[in-house]
Design brief:
The chain has about 325 residues and is mainly α. The protein is about 75% helix and about 0% strand. The chain contains 12 helices and no strands. The N terminus and C terminus are likely disordered.
């Protein structure tokens, strides 16, 4: 009867009766002892990136973007703290659960920050060229992001209280659904952003005259490039995690048990996404005076798309 209440029956007990004193790390869930050097490196990268986002947020008043990116950074930090626990003991139950949970959720916060910038990019170039009102990019994509997080969290809860393989598989399927939702959301977002970029290129004469200086600045152009780099980093990582989870949690999962794949397709892409948006932070590209002039332009053009424009004017003052 006690087994019914044993958390993560299959996953937590995949180590069986093994401990670091009785078994080699090959028999652990991951099948390897995390690299201490890589773990410390990424822990420090995300820690200092998070501190930098806090400082940049304070200086630029980019509150939503700052909260999203900071949550992503410090979720990653805690995830690598869990990796430290697994380095000390590859059979650590706490280390395994923390790493699976935190390193799965963290990139969703980065995605939210990326989604939020598209609204301001549309306001900078031209509202009329956007397929939908810019505010809806924020509402729809961040809502989808939250749904993906909830699916991943609920899947983890179901798996953690499972007492047989059937329930465990349900939990796995929910987690995969959450990650797949995140991938689909990212793909749709990228398609809409690319379509908007094509319209901007073809309709130069329709661009917002109030933001000519901003649009022609080197910093703004580098920011757009950095945003695409961050976007593809998060997308690559999410696709990797879907493929990883689809193979289950046993010894047959060569993707999960390959540390080089984890570093190359999870740690590196997310770290790059975090750092490039530190360097080319949207707060430096959307100065208050540019946003205020852009807001004025938006208030005139938004009603033509069926809205009052008041919400966009109010929200554009912060990234």
């Amino acid at each position: 009867m006690l087994d019914m209440f044993n958390p993560l029956l299959r996953r937590g007990n995949a180590n069986g009766t093994c401990t670091k004193e009785t078994c080699t790390y090959i028999w652990s869930v991951y099948g390897y002892q995390p690299s201490l050097a890589a773990t410390i490196l990424f822990l420090l990268l995300f820690f200092f990136s998070g501190l930098t986002y806090i400082y940049q947020g304070y200086r630029t008043k980019t509150w939503f973007f700052t909260i999203a990116m900071t949550l992503g950074c410090f979720s990653e930090v805690l995830g690598y703290v869990a990796k430290m626990l697994l380095w000390q003991d590859p059979f650590s139950d706490a280390g395994f659960k923390m790493s699976v949970t935190l390193l799965t959720f963290a990139p969703a916060f980065y995605a939210a920050g990326i989604y939020y910038t598209l609204k301001h990019i549309c306001l900078t170039f031209s509202v009329e060229l956007s397929r939908v009102r810019p505010i809806w990019y924020t509402r729809v994509f961040i809502t989808c992001d939250v749904i993906s997080i909830l699916l991943q969290a609920s899947g983890g809860v179901v798996a953690s209280i499972s007492w047989n393989k059937f329930i465990l598989d349900i939990g796995d399927d929910i987690m995969i659904t959450g990650l797949a939702t995140q991938v689909i959301t990212l793909v749709v977002f990228g398609a809409l952003a690319a379509e908007y970029g094509e319209k901007v290129y073809k309709h130069q004469h329709q661009l917002n005259h109030a933001t000519v200086e901003l649009r022609n600045s080197k910093m703004f152009k580098l920011f757009l490039m950095a945003l695409w780099v961050a976007y593809f980093g998060i997308l690559i990582r999410c696709c990797y995690r879907v493929a990883e989870l689809c193979r289950g949690w046993g010894g047959q999962n060569y993707i999960m048990r390959n540390q080089a794949l984890f570093i190359g397709l999870d740690s590196m892409p997310v770290a790059i996404a975090s750092i490039v948006l530190n360097i080319w932070h949207p707060g430096w590209c959307f100065p208050k005076q540019a946003l205020e002039s852009d807001a004025t332009e938006t208030s005139r053009s938004e009603p033509e798309k069926g809205g009052s424009g008041e919400s966009s004017v109010e929200e554009v003052s912060q990234v």
